[in-house]
Write a structure and sequence with these properties.
The protein is an alpha/beta fold. Helices cover 32% and strands 16% of the residues. The strands form 4 sheets. It has an 8-stranded parallel β-sheet with strand order 2-3-4-5-6-7-8-9. The protein has a 3-stranded antiparallel β-sheet with strand order 1-10-15, with helices on one face. A two-stranded antiparallel ribbon has the order 11-14.
Length: 351
């Protein structure tokens, strides 16, 4: 097989990104803006983004933090709560900058304590989302403490997601950061209105990465990485050319001290190599020719947004990853800190 040393694709988008707030935004948004045309911004701040007015103000803060001249587009989401109203859904759908609502089961992940406590009571909200054409993004894990953490996605698919799809068959749904064969199979067997994002770190590591040579807190994320058989299922889905699966980094910045703590928080920071890591995963699977569809086309198509028209070029050239990145008045440890990534974005500045 011919070795590809340079790959030019239409500029990708990131359909799952955390930027936090305040001074921290400027520390991390530049990494995404260098690589992606736009990104779907997650709303789990403190307090969360639950209204259109809050989403507008958060978007304004992101735009102000972008490097001068950047054309990066932040697409906003609303954080669903027990108190979300159909009227707020209608208002969101009527504003071009809010393109989805995010369902966090209460307590499922970082800053999700204000999430939905009883999904069975959200039917009127889902009906409004169908009526007004607003997609639902789902963090797919149950929070039942009796369910093993490695099984929480599979159980969610069976107990929660399947009934939502059954009862609201016209609702556009994205199973975010899918991590299991069960999740992949479910999405494949649904109608075209059900899709999933896949992260680079879940393509590149299985659960052994949490324990290699000791506990590795910077590889801890939610949903947690699974067994190798599940990683293989994710790779097969990502390189399949099935438009139901597309890029969503779930890059999640946390201060170094918050990760390296007695109760370390969940999340991998990957924005510093947001497309390069995917190129590495697709290259290892001998499927670089499938990267453009996954990264640049399928997500935009699903959300009914235009594909980017400019291009980026990736070259097969290892790039060293720094040990620390600034993060507001603190610092964060990026994914692969002290190591390297096999591909480099052409024209990338000093990182």
């Amino acid at each position: 097989m011919k070795v590809v040393n340079s790959l030019t694709i239409k500029r990708p988008d990131d359909w799952h990104l955390h930027l936090r707030d305040g001074a921290a935004i400027a520390s991390v948004v530049r990494h995404s803006a260098e690589r992606f045309g736009g990104a779907l911004i997650m709303p789990n701040l403190k307090p969360p983004i639950t209204t259109v007015d809050q989403a507008f103000e958060y978007r304004r803060r992101i735009l102000m933090a972008l490097p001068e001249g950047s054309q990066f587009v932040p697409y906003m989401t609303l954080y669903l709560t027990d108190n979300t109203t159909p009227e707020e859904i209608k208002l969101a759908a009527q504003n071009s900058f809010v393109i989805a609502a995010k369902l966090y089961p209460a307590g499922a992940t970082t800053n999700s304590d204000g999430g939905v406590t009883d999904i069975k009571k959200m039917g009127h909200v889902f009906d409004a989302m169908v009526r007004w054409g607003l997609p639902l993004c789902v963090h797919g894990e149950v929070t039942d403490p009796s369910v093993d953490i490695f099984d929480r996605e599979a159980v969610f698919v069976e107990r929660v997601l399947s009934p939502i799809v059954r009862d609201h068959s016209d609702l556009k749904i994205v199973l975010e950061h899918v991590t299991t064969k069960e999740g992949v199979d479910f999405v494949c067997n649904c109608d075209p209105n059900v899709a999933a994002t896949i992260t680079a770190h879940h393509l590149l590591m299985n659960r052994n990465a949490l324990f290699e040579g000791g506990l590795r807190p910077h590889n801890y994320c939610l949903p947690v990485a699974k067994r190798e058989e599940h990683r293989q299922a994710l790779i097969e889905a990502a390189i399949s050319g099935n438009p139901k699966f597309f890029l969503g980094t779930d890059s999640a910045p946390h201060a170094k001290g918050a990760k390296e703590a007695a109760c370390g928080c969940a999340g991998c920071y990957t924005a510093h190599a947001g497309i390069e890591l995917y190129a590495e995963a697709f290259d290892k699977a001998n499927a670089l020719d499938m990267l453009e569809g996954f990264a640049s086309f399928y997500g935009a198509d699903f959300y009914g947004l235009p594909r980017n028209t400019d291009t980026i070029t990736l070259v097969r050239q290892p790039r060293q990853i720094t040990d620390l990145h600034p993060f507001g008045d603190s610092s964060l440890v990026p994914y692969r800190a002290g190591g390297s990534v096999a591909w480099t974005l052409e024209g990338l500045g000093d990182h």
